[in-house]
Amino acid sequence: MAPRYQREAAAVDRNTGGWGRVRSSPPPLPKSCTRDNLFAGPPRTSQIQDRGRDRRRMIRSLGPGVHRPAPHPGPQRVAGKRRSAALPASSRAGLPQSAQFCGAEPEAPNPAAPFRAASASSPGSPPVAPAVPATKRPLVCPEHCSDIMLGMIKNSLFGSVETWPWQVLSTGGKEEVSYEERACEGGRFATVEVTDKPVDEALREAMPKVMKYVGGTNDKGIGMGMTVPISFAVFPSEDGSLQKKLKVWFRIPNQFQSNPPVPSDDSVKIEERESITVYSTQFGGYAKAADYVAQAAQLRTALEGTATYRSDTYFCTGYDPPMKPYGRRNEVWLVKT
After folding, report:
1. Of the chain's two ends, which shows fewer C-beta atoms within 10 Å, N or C?
2. How far apart are CA 194 and CA 198, in angstroms?
3. Residue 187 Ramachandran class (φ > 0 left, ψ -120 to 50 alpha, else beta)
């Protein structure tokens, strides 16, 4: 008598007129997926059995080329010890030692295991692409990061906000540009300097470091509040464009001026600066480097012939946190000589 799968395949041939074994023909629709019972609710036990039977018949009707998973070899005995079936050497390569062996003596480590080539695969199987070694990343504690971010947000939203002490000496304007002459007090500042990057990119790197320091990333672990504006010095070229250099200056609040906390980040420095006199003009919106350059050019035009100022550097300032969408205040300061 023929095997069972041959008898079922012959039955499929008789029922379908020989089309059941042709690969180009569409497979017969399973009984459990007909239009009548598509929305008939959960399948019954008989329907589940029909699905399995239809699937097995379809696999057999497609011929011997259909992939069938090989059965697990089961437990084996090695040197009198029972352990799970060992994986081939090509499959064990690159796995951690605990995953390579289960109850047997470990083999010598293979230095080339993370870079297993295609030749290590079994004959007849498709080539295996070389594995890319994992990149080592510094360990980061999520709880510590969340504490830092929470401190920054809490300090910027709920901390005390001071204004950089200054005195307005005079005001002026020309055409559509108005400006003030201010005498700004000195003191201790937290500074971060970034080089070899455009101003906008350097500012995105430097500003979070200052905010972390002010928010509690210091030796005392306390939020100091905010002082506005936060200024950063830029360095123009001869054609007016900005060089790839930036230095952020954050004036430490008055409460901590005499003994400022020590920054935990080595890139944050505490410096003392004398008072300065500046010519300031104000504008709104989310300011970019191009906006500061344009406003500085307009201020120079308004001061032409009436004032002297430094040409090698000037300050760009901001008063508002990033989450404030409207009513923003930005300024450009030209340092008086």
Report:
1. N
2. 9
3. left
Residue-wise DSSP of 287-332: --HHHHHHHHHHHHHHHTTT--B-SS-EEEEE-S-TT--SS--EEE
SS3 46: helix
Residue 230: beta bridge partners? 318
3-state secondary structure of 50: helix
> Are 249 and 214 spatial neighbours (Cβ–Cβ below 8 Å)?
no
Enter the tokens of residue 218.
């210091």
Burial 232-257 (b: 16+ CB within 10 A, else e): bbbebeeeeebeebbbbbbbbbeebe
Q: Contact, 32 vs 43, CB < 8 A?
A: yes
Token pair for 120: 């290590």
Read off the pLDDT of residues 69-99 as tens digits, 9 standing for 90 and up: 555 555 555 455 554 444 444 444 444 443 4
Contact 178, 172 (CB under 8 A): yes
- Nearest CA to 289 out of 208, 204, 199, 192 is that of 199
Q: Is 246 helix (H, G, I), strand (E, B) or coil?
A: strand
Joined tokens for residue 186: 């000195």
By C-alpha distance, which of 272, 280, 335 is closest to 308? 335
Element (H, E) at 49: helix 45-61
pLDDT tens across 185-212, in order? 999 999 999 999 999 999 999 999 999 9
